[in-house]
Design a protein that fits this description.
Blueprint (H helix, E strand, L loop, with lengths): L37 H15 L11 H8 L3 H13 L3 E4 L3 E4 L38 E2 L12 H12 L14 H15 L8 E4 L2 H11 L6 E6 L3 H9 L3 E8 L2 E2 L10 E4 L13 H14 L2 E5 L15 H7 L6 E6 L11 E4 L2 H14 L5 H12 L2 H24 L6 E4 L6 E6 L5 H10 L2 E2 L1 E2 L11 E5 L5 H21 L9
Parallel strand pairs: 3-14, 5-6, 5-8, 8-9, 9-10
Antiparallel strand pairs: 1-2, 4-11, 6-7, 10-11, 12-13, 13-16, 15-16
Length: 509
């Protein structure tokens, strides 16, 4: 019969029980004031001693009566602890030999490196995450990559989700490429908005641009492929490529986009943002687009066209996507077009899409199946309602007017900095680039602005090598009044830094 677990009373119920035994080569520390039961404390401490090598395999454990008497507990406490050790394989019991540490218990290798909390020592460290975290920095934040929702039709938005909730609930997996209705709606959408002809079978629904790029670099590219990237460029995309084990070669850009010439090296893939180069903001001219397509044909390469905010244009005529040009020239299979609804609607829907030729798309669908088996059906249903009902197109028209007003308010306050700074990338998108005079280091101007409660970004983390001397000003999440107020502070800071640098007698006035 197992004795009750209640230990004999001592004069100090809160203090530790006796901590040494003559038969174990380490102290035991059982405490009555812990929430952990006494038998669990005893089993844990013996188990830790076995795992650390203090009790090698085959070591006999003290008899239950002896150990109970030494510790000042009932025999039942020790018996229950031993029962736990027998159950989990730490100990073994044999007739005539008593209870002992299991013979085959492994002992740690001498001088084996140990990582924190048992993590393997060979596990590499984590490089800094190349994205801005959620939320805003203190003050007025010209953060890149966000969009406002002030123009969102909340009635249509709520109705879309209400309709999605009424959809039949299936007990089966959905199409990993995306529901056919949504793929058809997205194909029609890029046809209307971007002039890209596509069929539903050409479309894969993704969890956004980075998700799409992860699928591409892991399912289309052979291991260790060489990839060309714009420099400066989208830092998160660069890290995706590096984490997948590919070789990234930076290629310079100018106001007309990626520089393509006879010196452009061969590669299996090039990643570009031709509609609004990220982060400098230029649009790739038609001659460069044709040159890039010719480069891809010559080197048997693929092109990833990231059209992350091409819906927002301000007075500039739209240029055909690379994918549309490629189709016209008979090279449509070389371009994978990446679109997203993060800027069109909100990043919270976590939905983008890829338009690609069937041989490429089938590989992406296979990778998507093995990764997560496809996007959530209810989210797809709501987005289908918004797209097919014309709500997204109307929202884009409203948003385009809104962002044009914000952009005008911002650029209007910065146009008087002739000789000290000039704006780039103002024809499209949700950010502009303020290029500074060489005598005005971007880091110094940004630091002064931070002290004044205005947050901007330099191009250091977007560039491999020496970064352009410029500030990145995202206006997607601001109102016209906020943009104008922030622009006045930025202009004042530039003039103040210019005065200190002796460029001109500018003042903060």
């Amino acid at each position: 019969m197992v004795a009750p677990l209640k230990a004999p009373l001592s004069t100090d119920l809160r203090g530790p029980l006796p901590t040494r035994t003559d038969e174990l080569p380490f102290p035991l520390d059982l405490r009555r004031d812990q929430t952990e039961a006494l038998h669990a404390q005893l089993a844990r401490q013996i188990r830790e001693a076995v795992l650390s090598g203090l009790l090698p395999g085959g070591t006999p454990l003290p008899g239950t009566r002896t150990l109970a008497r030494t510790l000042g507990v009932t025999r039942g406490v020790v018996e229950t602890a031993y029962a736990e050790l027998l159950a989990d394989g730490t100990a073994q019991a044999e007739v005539g030999r008593g209870t002992r540490v299991r013979d085959e218990t492994p002992t740690p290798a001498p001088n084996a490196p140990a990582g924190p909390a048992g993590v393997p020592a060979w596990l590499p460290g984590i490089p800094p995450l190349p994205v801005d975290g959620p939320g805003t920095r203190p003050g007025l934040d010209f953060r890149v990559g966000v969009t406002g929702t002030a123009t969102l039709d909340l009635r249509a938005w709520r109705q879309a989700w209400s309709d999605a909730a009424r959809e039949p609930v299936s007990g089966d997996y959905a199409d990993p490429a995306g529901e056919h209705r949504l793929r058809a709606a997205l194909a029609a959408f890029v046809g209307r908005q971007r002039g890209l002809g596509a069929q539903p079978e050409d479309v894969l629904v993704t969890g956004g641009t980075l998700h799409a790029l992860n699928l591409i670099v892991r399912s289309v590219l052979p291991p260790g492929s060489r990839v060309l990237m714009e420099n400066p460029g989208y830092r998160a995309a660069r890290q995706v490529l590096l984490d997948a084990g590919h070789e990234v070669l930076p290629v310079p850009v100018d106001g007309d986009g990626l520089i393509v010439n006879a010196d452009t090296p061969a590669a299996r893939l090039v990643y570009v943002t031709p509609s609004h180069q990220f982060p400098l903001g230029g649009r790739m001219c038609l001659s460069r687009r044709l040159a890039l397509l010719e480069w891809a044909a010559r080197h048997d390469a693929l092109i990833v066209e990231d059209d992350y905010d091409g819906e927002f244009r301000y007075g500039a005529p739209p240029l055909p996507p690379l994918a549309a040009l490629a189709a016209q020239t008979g090279a449509g299979g070389r371009v994978m077009y990446l679109g997203t609804l993060s800027k069109v609607l909100t990043p919270s829907v976590r939905t983008g899409f890829v338009v690609a030729a069937p041989p490429l798309l089938s590989r992406l669908v296979r990778a998507r199946t093995l990764l997560d088996f496809g996007p959530p059906v209810q989210v797809q249903a709501a987005l289908t309602h918004l797209l097919t009902g014309g709500h997204v197109d109307r929202h884009i028209r409203r948003s385009r007017r809104w962002h044009a007003q914000v952009r005008a308010a911002l650029t209007g306050t910065l146009n008087g900095l002739d000789g000290l700074a000039h704006l780039g990338g103002i024809e499209a998108g949700l950010h502009v680039c303020l290029h500074l005079h060489p005598a005005l280091p971007a880091r110094d101007v940004a630091a002064q602005l931070t002290a004044q409660g205005v947050q901007v970004t330099t191009l250091d983390t977007y560039t491999l090598g020496e970064a352009p001397n410029a500030l990145l000003l995202g206006h997607g999440g601001l109102s016209a009044a906020q943009a104008a107020a922030g622009g006045r502070v930025i202009a004042g800071a530039v003039r103040s830094c210019a005065t200190r640098a002796g460029l001109a007698p500018y003042s903060d006035a």
